[in-house]
Amino acid sequence: MIAVGVPKVSGYIRDLISEVKTHNQGEPEFHQAVTEVFESLDPVLERRPEYRAARILERLVEPDRVLMFRVPWQDDEGTIHVNRGFRIEMSSAIGPYKGGLRFHPSVNLGILKFLAFEQVLKNSLTTLPMGGGKGGSDFDPKGKSDNEVMRFCQSFMTELSRHIGPDTDVPAGDIGVGGREIGYLFGQYKRIRNEFTGVLTGKGLNWGGSLIRPEATGYGAVYFAAEMLATRGETLEGKTCLVSGSGNVAQYTVEKLLQLGAKPVTLSDSSGYIYDEKGIDAEKLAFLMDLKNVRRGRIREFTDKFKGAVYIPVDPSHDYNPLWTHKAQCAFPSATQNEISGKDAEHLLDAGVYVVSEGANMPTTLEGVERFLAARILYAPGKAANAGGVATSGLEMSQNSMRLSWTREEVDDRLHKIMQAIHKACWETADQFGVKGNYVIGANIAGFLKVADAMMDQGLV
Ligand code: NDP
Ligand code: 2IT
User: Fold this and answer.
1) In ligand 2, which atom is closest to the CA atom of 99?
2) For residue 98, what is the enclosing H or E element?
3) What is the pLDDT of residues 341-389, one digit of tens each?
4) 90, 156, 282, 435: which has the fewest Cβ within 10 Å?
């Protein structure tokens, strides 16, 4: 696969991937994430044979521990429901476990293991001392009342609280977990443990949260795109951008694109997408934020207010997403995994897109990645491009430890510098390994080296 300018994948790596597949059956997303990373690592193992002897890769794919638990809760009618809760504590080589919680009906062990595995390398890239973890539940917050969400969060935290702590494991938000959920989770942790600590990030500003954390993932993905364009002497100004999703990451991607003079034209949810040829401006974004964050409505309602926009519902008979066919220069996939297939990637290239910055985690299939790399476009994988979110969580942890809060400008400036540092690390690492401009290999190797060296230093654990 990731073969641009890289020698063929070795037998050792091929065997290891196949071993991971047999050993972790029914977890296709985990297989995919491991395949993409491991296929990048042969050149490192050639230079550092001690990693192979120390079985670093074999240890990286086996979580430190996997917690799975029952989450019983009652709806507003008094009916009892039982969901499944998870926390994957993947690696603490370079810091306490850190990563989000996802509440979505599709959540299962394999999806959370892929996310936790990606998180280990992503957190390493941030330059901050954070290990990797991920968790969540197959609970669906959609259509639930605030009280139902609260009761679910309290039940979930009643078990999770035994396993986490500000120096052990620090969860945050992800799909379906935003400010509201973090509030209920934090309240219950505090009640059970009688401790006011930085055990979660993404907290409210009045109770330990950091300015810019809500904005950070979207802003970071745009900063990363700007850095990639700068390598060709270009900027985002005047560029037409396709954005998918309409949640936290998509909203702040649009906000930063507008600040930098670009023109976002699409947004989506799992039911369909909107295309606004005139561009989604600040007024339209404010409407979207109220629609999604306050009224918890659907993206279709955007066209009730803005008549120039069209709504295209998902057509289950399509084997591609028409969102990715509109003429543009940049794409910011910000919804979920595998939302860009090989065919979608071809459509994007045909539409003129030559910058892809992944706000979502693993939004592109292996076939799609292969096409982007073969076309030598500016393609940033999620573990680099969306690392601004967790990096700013790291800044929230620092502020909590110091019992201080930084200004908006200070946090944004640190976020910006971190994204520049991640870009530089990916760029320079790719160059050192003879694959200039390949951000996939650059991110995988740069993220891996720091974790692998920490594991070597800490002995066989
Ligand atoms: P939100 O819950 O705020 O928004 C998710 C958006 O994606 C919604 O518009 C949702 O639509 C859509 N979506 C979710 N699942 C699907 C699906 N199966 N098919 C189509 N659309 C879907 O989540 P975030 O914005 O926080 O997360 C988006 C992505 O960014 C995820 O991949 C997440 O892992 C990643 N990410 C998030 C970070 C953060 O800080 N929040 C940090 C780094 C990465 P609908 O309402 O219909 O479900
Ligand atoms: O995927 C991710 O990096 C996140 N959902 C954010 C994790 C965090 O701890 O802020």
Assistant:
1) 9
2) strand 97-103
3) 999 999 999 999 999 999 999 999 999 999 999 999 999 999 999 999 9
4) 282
**Residue 327 alpha carbon to ligand 2 centre in Å:** 31
Kindly state whether residues 221 and 349 are assigned to the same domain: yes
End-of-domain residue from the set 360, 380, 400? 380
33: which 2 tokens? 């994430």
Neighbouring-strand partners of residue 171 = 99
pTM as predicted: 0.98
Ligand 2 centre distance from Cα of residue 98 (Å)? 8
pLDDT tens per residue across span 384-438: 999 999 999 999 999 999 999 999 999 999 999 999 999 999 999 999 999 999 9
> For the segment 10-42, what is each residue's pLDDT rounded down to a tens digit?
999 999 999 999 999 999 999 999 999 999 999
> Which residue segment(s) compose the domain that 10 sits in?
1-62+437-461
- From the number of C-beta atoms within 10 Å of its C-beta (0-12, 13-18, 19+), residue 133 rates as buried
Within a domain: residue 416? no
Q: Encoding tokens for residue 298?
A: 């659907």
Interval 253-257 mean pLDDT = 99
The yes-or-no verdict on residue 3 having pLDDT over 60 is no
Query: Could you tell me how many helices (H) and strands (E) the chain has, helices first?
Result: 18, 13
Ligand 1 binding pocket, CB closer than 6 Å? 106, 173-176, 178, 217, 245-249, 269-271, 334-336, 359-361, 386, 389
* Ligand 2 binding site (Cβ under 6 Å of any ligand atom): 98-100, 119, 122, 172, 174, 201, 361, 389-390, 393
